[in-house]
Design a protein that fits this description.
globular; 4-stranded antiparallel sheet; 124 residues
């Protein structure tokens, strides 16, 4: 069954770190754009970061640049989101999404597959 599975969410105190993982099941991320997004209750969905797996080019949203890092494993089965210096405003459900091809329009969402989400809660 083709699907994305996120993991690594949890509860941390402000200033802490988490690393999220997005695993490809039933396919491989080669030649895909993989992105991380989040949505908090009452807020719009926000694009955080994306990576074009073919060449490793990364893209970041303004609110997380310098704090979050997206990367991929060598087998192109998993994409990671390292999140440092987390703040209460980072509390949200985090999703990974993917579609084949470049990341030129990643910020608006990637429509092929979407994971079920993983919750991140940051306390002050």
């Amino acid at each position: 069954q083709v699907r994305l599975v996120e993991s690594g969410g949890g509860s941390v105190q402000a200033g802490g770190s988490l690393r999220l993982s997005c695993g490809a099941h039933g396919f491989n991320f080669r030649w895909y754009c993989v992105g991380w997004f989040r949505q908090a209750p009452g807020k719009e969905r926000e694009g955080l970061a994306a990576i074009y797996t073919a060449d490793g080019t990364t893209y970041y949203g303004k609110s997380v640049k310098g704090r979050f890092t997206i990367s991929q494993d060598n087998d192109m089965n998993t994409v990671f989101l390292q999140m440092n210096n987390l703040q209460p405003e980072d509390t949200a459900t985090y999703y990974c999404e993917t579609e084949w091809g470049s990341c030129s329009e990643w910020y608006n969402g990637l429509s092929l597959y979407r994971g079920q989400g993983t919750q991140v809660t940051v306390s002050s």
